[in-house]
Amino acid sequence: MPHMPMQTAFEIRPARPVRQNWRPHLRKLGLMDRDKASEETPPESPEEMAALIAAIARDADRTAFARLFGYYAPRLKSYLRRMRVDERQAEDLAQEAMLTVWRKAALFDPEKASAGTWIFTIARNRFIDTVRRERRPDFDPLDPMLQPEEARPADDEMAGAEIAVRVRAALTDLPPDQAEVVELSFLEGLPHSAIAERLGIPLGTVKSRLRLAFARLRTALEDLK
Amino acid sequence: MNALTQRKTVTHRLGDEWLMAYAAGALSEGQSLLVASHLSYLDDTADRLAMAEAAGGALVETLRPDIMSPDALARTLALLDAPETKPAPRAAHALPGDPLPPPLRAWLGGKSVDELPWSYLGPGMKKVKLWRGGPNDQRLWMLRAEPGVKIPEHGHSGTELVLVLKGSLEDPHGVFRAGDVEESDGSLSHGLKIGGEEECICLAVTEGPTRFKGWIAKLLQPFIGL
After folding, report:
1. Are A137 and B28 inside 8 Å of each other by CB?
2. Domain coordinates in residue numbering, chain B
3. Any idea which architecture B1-86+100-226 has in CATH?
4. Does the distance separating the beta carbons of B7 and A145 come in below 8 Å?
5. Mutation for B interface: A214, A218, A224, most B CBs within 10 A
6. Residue of B nearest to A140 (CA)
7. How many C-alpha atoms does A76 have within 13 Å on its Cβ side?
8. Cβ contact, residue pair A119, B57, below 8 Å
9. Which domains does chain A have, with CATH numbers?
């Protein structure tokens, strides 16, 4: 069962402020190093990015790789810098992550994830492995325990891209207090307790904000099932 | 019974904030292992994890691009044909009859529950320490207790997560069975009772030393080492 009961207690919240109001607020907190240009001209479509990975898997297409590299490597470096990796190592890790994209291209499943999501998980795992020197327990995607109950309909081929588009929109619509904890989790890798300390709010508040944010992602994807 | 047959019976799920933190790579190795193990009991994990990871992907895509060194692409292109140096680690599957969920089994290098170095913890209780680190002095360990054993009232400085792998345990909030997680806050001191039907095996992550109440338990404190 989904984790719904929590929601009722938090239903009453102020009307969502318009973006122009909350963005500077987050920028002040150092949370919004957003690329203005990329907002005005949206990045290449998720379908196009997935096609580039498919071309690498199928034809070892170096031109496709160079295009993916041009888009993702500088963003991965930016992500790694936010994760407090030094300049030189962030540069190396971004390159290594892209090398993994080349090597594992055949394992990319556009039904499960978008190119951006898949590449994020590669960089994240690389960071945990190399910088934090920890072993990340992971799932075997072939494990029968993790297979969906029923086969997905055939027209669901690019579900990963659709999920990415909707999640991105849902993130943009998050109330600022939820957006803040989501960004501190994903872009700075902070545990709940560190977020609570950073923002000077109780641990329980950090957790409920993250739960509410996840509930919104779920809602945005509800009819995809 | 193994995890495969019990996935439907999970009644105490961890909140989605744990899934988010796991997807973000924001958990310590110990908490991450417990959360991954818990998630392996749930049948909607693949979908929910995909949603949470999509948030990471979307956020990274909207970051302002950093400047790569001028020869970054050329250097990476030059490496494309080089053979991969280390093989990817193999994930482990559930073993029939063994209560260890696949992420935990893989982390333990494929060991079964009986191959672990269990040591005495208290009457009817054994422990094995697995890891220590992360923020707030976290400890990952396993508990193996005989049916009906009572674990004395205790507390920690921070969060305690207990994932039941086999058997059942009871606290004031209910009964926890394989796949269920008992989450408690450090400020609460609580006791646990092992179900009477079979032995109970749990995976736990605690923050700071475990402090028992009562003078006998306090006397034993130095020997517990958790």
Report:
1. no
2. 1-86+100-226
3. Sandwich (2.60)
4. yes
5. A214
6. B91
7. 35
8. yes
9. 42-134 (1.10.1740.10), 173-225 (1.10.10.10)
Chain B residues touching A69 at Cβ < 8 A: 72-73, 76
Find chain B residues with C-beta within 8 A of A81's C-beta. 66
Tell me the pLDDT of chain B (226 aa) as tens digits.
444 444 557 899 999 999 999 999 999 999 999 999 999 999 899 899 999 999 999 999 999 999 999 999 999 999 998 887 765 555 566 677 889 999 999 899 889 999 999 999 888 999 999 999 988 899 999 999 999 999 877 777 788 899 999 999 998 889 999 999 999 876 666 788 999 999 999 999 998 877 776 666 666 665 566 7
- Asked if residue B150 lies in contact with residue B206, where contact means CB atoms within 8 angstroms, the answer is no
**Helices A19-28 and A176-188 meet at what angle, rounded to 10?**
40
pTM (2 d.p.): 0.85
Q: Are B152 and B164 in contact (CB under 8 A)?
A: no
* CB pair distance less than 8 Å for A190 and B61: no
In contact, A172 and A165? CB cutoff 8 Å:
no
CA dihedral sign, ordered B39, B43, B48, B50: positive
Nearest to B48 by CA among A169, A215, A153, A27: A215
The CA distance from B35 to the nearest CA of chain A, in Å, is 9
Q: Inspect the interface and report whether the beta carbons of A167 and B66 lie closer than 8 Å.
A: no
Q: What is the DSSP letter of A3?
A: -
Are B165 and B145 within 8 A, CB to CB?
A: no
Supply A119's token pair: 């590449």
ipTM: 0.89
Q: Which residue has the tokens 């944010």?
A: A213
Residues of A in Cβ contact (< 8 Å) with B94: 143, 145
Chain B residue numbers touching A118 (CB-CB < 8 A): 57
- Using the beta-carbon criterion (under 8 Å), do A191 and B47 form an inter-chain contact? no
